[in-house]
Design goal:
CATH superfamily of one domain in chain A: MetI-like
Distance between the termini of chain A: 56 Å
Number of domains of chain B: 2
Order of helices and strands of chain B: HEEEHEEEHHHEHEHEEHHEEEEEEEEEE
Radius of gyration of chain A: 25 Å
CATH topology of one domain in chain A: MetI-like fold
CATH architecture of one domain in chain A: Orthogonal Bundle
CATH class of the largest domain in chain B: Alpha Beta
Number of strands of chain B: 20
Mean pLDDT of chain B: 87
Strand order of the largest sheet of chain B: 6-7-8-3-9-10
CATH superfamily of the largest domain in chain B: P-loop containing nucleotide triphosphate hydrolases
Helix content of chain B: 10-25%
Low-confidence stretches of chain B: 1-5
CATH class of one domain in chain A: Mainly Alpha
Order of helices and strands of chain A: HHHHHHHHHHH
Number of strands of chain A: 0
Strand content of chain B: 25-35%
Oligomer: heterodimer
Helix content of chain A: over 70%
Shape of chain B: globular
Number of helices of chain A: 11
Strand content of chain A: under 5%
Largest sheet of chain B: 6 strands, mixed
Radius of gyration of chain B: 25 Å
Largest sheet of chain A: none
CATH architecture of the largest domain in chain B: 3-Layer(aba) Sandwich
CATH topology of the largest domain in chain B: Rossmann fold
Low-confidence stretches of chain A: none
Structural class of chain B: alpha+beta
């Protein structure tokens, strides 16, 4: 009976994993396909990778996406952290509920609406004050900051509410003025949260298609926009190659993160043993 | 002992002594809730003063107002003659040890202890010297390079203490200093804390909910409830002569009998129980009318328990049936049900090792209770 159930569970696990990962493997395999027609296998080749690197269009899109993602991540982290601090540390100021609602609104707002409303804003602004004169890097970055700072604010908020408030009181008590407390205590403790927020904002921006395609202008193609516009004209093998590169990059990132977390965990275990060992010795000495 | 010598140890008895911390009319309201309600308090130099009370009684709020983390709704606080109300926490000559220790997790032990000195702009060599001195004092010299999470609870507590003392504050505020330690370590640390305080001569103000801790540590205790002081006194005064039922039952356990005064003479009072005719003879006078409603409190350890009836009938005698026996090792607790159904608690030290299962009295056995006229207190509120 026990055996039977575990076979069932095991087959369900295999099925689930296959459902998630088989398509990705197929994509990777087909990126090495020689044939120009995606569904027809024409033997192994890396010609699409070469072709991809030869195309200036793809390089431009990658660089634009990375540039937007980087600037967006920095601004979103700064603004999101400030918003999180205001929400958790400044008590019940006037309009707090409204502020908190408005901070988290972009999380639930459909992307189409965010994109459309920002587009309308940019058009109105350019008619009124002549800025932005053209849509592209600036407008996409601004649009990305508006929604990714909401994610950062949420991360910072949860990190701050988990933080012992008496740490800040203690620093104050030891003679640090409020701004020093922020620099010496709050920011270093928030740093992991801010790093996580930065990475999230970076990925969100790299990933975004809908909002970017609303607020972009002619000639400014981010990577997702480029991929989507090419796919629309039919399956293309060089896109498979591009996708494979992205998957490998992400996989390396994930493995790296897992390795760092594993090392931290080991370190924590060592620390715990160290602390426990000392108190035991202390007890026996008495 | 001469009068002068006595007031050195007990400055609160000296009418001329200047309080080191002077609190007047202190009130703190959070919305509709009054956390601290118009309290006055004098704490003298070198005292180890405890604020004792259950959770939500306002003791922590009072402490935080002394530290400068909360501003009072009304009232003043003077420390060493200076009005503190407008002085921010980072400029007050007080330091605080937090219940959670609040050690900075990203700094080593040495950096934690040094933080206050660095903020004061002391030179590097002076900082190192004082940090080393302080860490040696709390016996953590070998641990200065560790991070807080690499220390045991007891070690963390000592780092927190060192960090709070290294700036040589005029007053050290301690919020539940031993609350996070296990019982054995707590008892040991209590005495270390007392010795340290005596050595340094710093005034300590301790907030605690643990009455045993307060009794052991303190020169004086303030018992708090609902933002007010119920009683302020030495541990002996608080325990032996509580002035209200609340204090009597909050500190230790006690048996309280309701009654009315039948005889009130300068040297004694006679109180008759409301439930039956039993009489309580207490050897101190009382400032109340005859027939006034009062309560008599008797501590469990002050009641004698016997299987034989007393030789002659009189006041301060009760009888009942043993309902429960609790063997606690160093003593046993007996719960005796009186004829009027009231349960009286008696504790009896186990001076000789009892044979297994043998007690002073057995379950369901009839026993007689008696006590000295000096043992009970009469409470009017």
């Amino acid at each position: 009976m026990q055996k039977k159930r575990s076979t069932f569970l095991f087959s369900m696990l295999c099925f689930g994993l296959a459902f998630l990962y088989v398509p990705i493997f197929i994509l990777i395999i087909y990126s090495f396909n020689y044939s120009k027609l995606v569904p027809i296998w024409g033997g192994w080749s890396t010609r699409w990778y070469t072709k991809l690197f030869e195309s200036p269009e793809v390089w431009e899109a990658v660089m634009l996406s990375l540039k937007i993602a980087f600037v967006n991540a920095c601004f979103a982290t700064l603004l999101g952290s400030l918003a999180g601090l205001a929400l958790v540390r400044f008590g019940r100021f006037k309009g707090r509920t409204l502020f908190s609602g408005m901070i988290s609104a972009p999380l639930v707002m459909p992307e189409v609406i965010t994109g459309l409303s920002l587009l309308l804003l940019f058009i109105t602004l350019s008619q009124l004050i002549g800025w932005p004169s053209a849509r592209g890097f600036t407008t996409i970055t601004i649009a990305h900051i508006t929604f990714s700072m909401a994610y950062v604010a949420v991360i910072i908020q949860s990190r701050l509410s988990g933080m012992d408030e008496s740490l800040e009181d203690a620093a104050l008590d030891l003679g640090a003025k409020p701004f020093r407390v922020l620099l010496d205590i709050t920011l270093p403790i928030l740093a992991p949260g801010m790093l996580a927020g930065w990475l999230l904002a970076f990925t969100l921006s790299l990933d975004d298609l809908v909002i970017a395609s609303f607020v972009t202008g002619p000639g400014s193609n981010t990577l997702p926009i480029l991929i989507y516009s090419r796919i629309r004209l039919g399956l293309r093998p060089d896109i498979n190659a591009l996708a494979t590169i992205m998957i490998v990059t992400v996989a390396i990132g994930v493995l790296l993160a897992a390795w760092i977390m594993w090392r931290q965990d080991k370190q924590r275990q060592r620390d715990r043993k160290l602390a426990a060992g000392d108190s035991l010795k202390h007890d026996l000495d008495d | 002992m001469s009068q002068a010598a006595e007031t050195v140890d007990r400055p609160w008895l000296d009418a001329d002594a200047q309080p080191f911390i002077k609190i007047r009319g202190m009130t703190k309201r959070f919305g509709d809730f009054t956390a601290v309600d118009n309290v006055d308090l004098d704490i003298y130099k070198g005292e180890l003063f405890s604020l004792l009370g259950g959770s939500g009684c306002g003791k922590s709020t009072l402490l935080r107002m002394m530290a400068g983390f909360e501003s009072p709704t009304a009232g003043t606080v003077h420390i060493d003659g200076t009005l503190m109300n407008e002085i921010p926490a980072y400029e007050r000559p007080v330091n605080m040890m937090f219940q959670s220790y609040a050690l900075f997790p990203h700094m080593t032990v040495a950096k934690n202890v040094a933080y206050g000195l660095v903020r004061d702009g002391l030179g590097k060599s002076e900082v190192t010297k004082r940090v080393d001195e302080m860490l040696d004092m709390v016996e953590l010299g070998d641990f200065s390079k560790r991070k807080p999470h690499q220390l045991s609870g007891g070690q963390q507590q000592r780092v927190a203490l060192a960090r709070a003392l290294v700036k040589r504050p005029k007053v050290l505020l301690l919020d539940e200093p031993l609350g996070a330690l296990d019982k054995r370590l707590r008892e040991q640390t209590q005495f270390e804390l007392m010795n340290l305080q005596e050595e340094l001569g710093v005034t300590f103000v301790v907030v605690t909910h643990d009455q045993e801790e307060a009794m052991t540590l303190s020169t004086r205790i303030a018992v708090m409830d609902q933002g007010k002081f119920m009683q302020i006194g030495t541990p002996t005064e608080i325990y032996e002569t509580p002035d209200s039922r609340h204090v009597a039952s909050f500190i230790g356990s006690t048996n309280i009998f309701q009654g009315f005064v039948v005889e009130n003479k300068p040297d004694h009072v006679l109180v008759q129980s409301r439930r039956d005719d039993s009489l309580f003879y207490i050897d101190h006078g009382l400032d109340v009318q005859e027939n006034a409603k009062v309560w008599v409190a008797i501590r469990p350890e002050k009641i004698r328990l016997s299987k034989t009836p007393p030789k002659k009938a009189g006041p301060n005698q009760l009888s009942g049936i043993v309902q429960d026996i609790g063997y606690l090792g160093r003593m046993s607790t007996y719960k005796v049900k009186l004829t009027n159904d009231k349960i009286v608690e008696i504790t009896h030290p186990n001076q000789v090792r009892p044979k297994s299962g043998e007690h002073l009295a057995d379950w369901e056995e009839k026993v007689y209770l008696s006590w000295e006229p000096t043992s009970a207190v009469v409470l009017t509120k």
